[in-house]
Design a protein that fits this description.
heterodimer; A: 367 residues; alpha+beta; 3-stranded antiparallel β-sheet; two-stranded antiparallel ribbon; 18 helices; 5 strands; B: 83 residues; mainly alpha; 4 helices
Chain lengths: 367, 83
């Protein structure tokens, strides 16, 4: 995401004044006062009115705004579930403080996608205050979802091609992730994006997969045993040991991640549910550690082992041909591809019992 | 003298007729972008931009913004690694 100059961030385009949203008076959304004096004009001004969206966006976009507060983009409720499920209730206030200081800034508002670049990355108008109906991928979506999704999808890792949907299909995020799914989250998926219905699902477009007439028999053989990404994704980012604290020097929150590396491991599906019946899925190491929040108190994650550290993953670097789908025995009998106990840190073995593959699928004779 | 008296009356009548042809309210700006739905318009109240809009005057003037924009404080970034 290109950084903008301070003046550039707030330069309003003449075309905005002709647009639908430009028909509202400035103070109607932003407060402040009409005055030739900058300080007077900016007194009580609300730079980002959608933080207090009531009475603003919902005036016209009532349906979207009714659902948006419960969406993962707005609520970040998955963070609370991830933190609290490794902890105990008496530690929740300390974890809440850590969340507020370090995680909550990723919360997004209408403005962060439709008017400016995300505020926590510096902000600045996308197009002279014009409201952009489809958020530009690299200035909004991957500005936040960059390290994993963005880098994988755009092919930023050396010698690993970008996702075929981008390289060949020139598809952007909203080609698959509908506005509705970005503006709202079904109730059953508010604690984890992988709990609810698969949306998007590969089969929404690839409708013939595993159906009569599908020329690839492996799709039928593996139907509900493997998620699509087991055969069609390649190495993706894993992270270790994120620790957060408040700086003694600046008083500002910061984080340190111990390691970031590329892996491709197939693990047992830790989230088997009606919509994800797969036995095997790719798993990604998430950056949590037992001491991630130790700045806020001792042993804040006493139930660390209740959740795996190698988590269900949907890498965004889909390829038609991958090393593991070259032949049956590229995968069957190939222990290197599977998350076996020897690849898990000894102190994380208990946490990952559910995902560790104990028995590698046997080689197929004659293949 | 009688002919001269009729001219002010004719002038007043002409002005009265012309006033009747003029708009009773100032023109309303027309949006060129996507229009809100009727239901939305019923709840949204647009307050027209004031005649002298100081906000717009300043925020559309690149040179003025360059002069007046507050320089951003450089923050020492202490975070390390992938976020």
């Amino acid at each position: 995401m290109a950084p903008l100059e301070p003046w550039e961030k707030v330069l309003v385009s003449a075309s905005f004044l002709e647009s639908t949203h430009g028909q509202f008076s400035c103070v109607q959304c932003h407060g402040g006062t009409q005055s030739p004096d900058k300080d007077t004009a900016h007194t009580n001004m609300i730079a980002n009115p959608t933080i207090e969206s009531v009475g603003r966006c919902d005036r016209c976009h009532e349906e979207i705004m009714a659902a948006f507060p419960d969406s993962l983009h707005a609520s970040l409720s998955g963070y609370a579930v991830a933190m609290q499920s490794r902890s105990v209730p008496e530690n929740h206030p300390a974890l809440q403080e850590a969340y507020t200081n370090h995680c909550s800034k990723c919360h997004s508002t209408c403005t962060d996608c439709h008017i400016t670049q995300p505020q926590h990355l510096g902000g600045g108008f996308l197009d002279g205050h014009n409201f952009v109906k489809t958020p530009p991928m690299t200035r909004t979506c991957t500005a936040c979802h960059g390290t994993r999704v963005g880098d994988e999808y755009l092919g930023k890792h050396e010698e690993i091609p970008g996702d075929v949907h981008f390289r060949v299909g020139r598809m952007n995020c909203v080609s698959c992730h509908s506005g509705e799914s970005l503006h709202s989250t079904p109730e059953d998926a508010r604690g984890n994006r992988y709990w609810g219905e698969q949306s998007p699902a590969c089969t929404t477009c690839h409708t013939n997969i595993g159906q009569q007439g599908d020329p690839i028999p492996q799709h039928t053989i593996h139907a509900e045993k493997l998620s699509c990404q087991v055969c069609h994704s390649v190495s993706y980012t894993s992270c270790d040991g994120c620790h957060v604290a408040i700086s003694d020097k600046t008083g500002l929150p910061f984080f340190r991640t111990e390691a970031t590396y590329l892996t491709f491991f197939i693990g047992k599906n830790p989230l088997v549910n009606e919509d994800r019946p797969y036995e095997y899925v790719p798993v990604r190491h998430v950056p949590v550690a037992p001491t991630s929040f130790e700045y806020y108190g001792e042993n804040l994650l006493p139930n660390f082992d209740l959740r795996p550290t190698w988590m269900y993953a949907t890498p965004h670097n889909i390829q038609r041909q991958t090393p593991q789908n070259q032949s049956c025995n590229s995968c069957h009998g190939n222990a290197e591809l599977f998350l076996t106990a020897d690849k898990v840190k000894p102190e994380e073995l208990n946490a990952n019992q559910r995902v560790i593959v104990e028995e590698i699928p046997a080689p197929i004779p004659g293949q | 003298m009688g002919k001269l008296r009729i001219w002010p009356v004719l002038l007043a009548a002409t002005l009265l007729l012309l006033t009747g042809c003029s708009r009773s309210t100032p023109p309303v700006p027309t949006a060129t972008g996507e229009a809100p739905t009727e239901a939305a318009l019923a709840t949204a109240t647009v307050t027209a931009q004031p005649q002298v809009n100081y906000c717009v005057e300043c925020h559309t003037d690149k040179d003025r913004l360059i002069q007046t924009a507050k320089p951003e404080e450089e923050v020492i970034e202490e975070s390390e690694g992938a976020g």
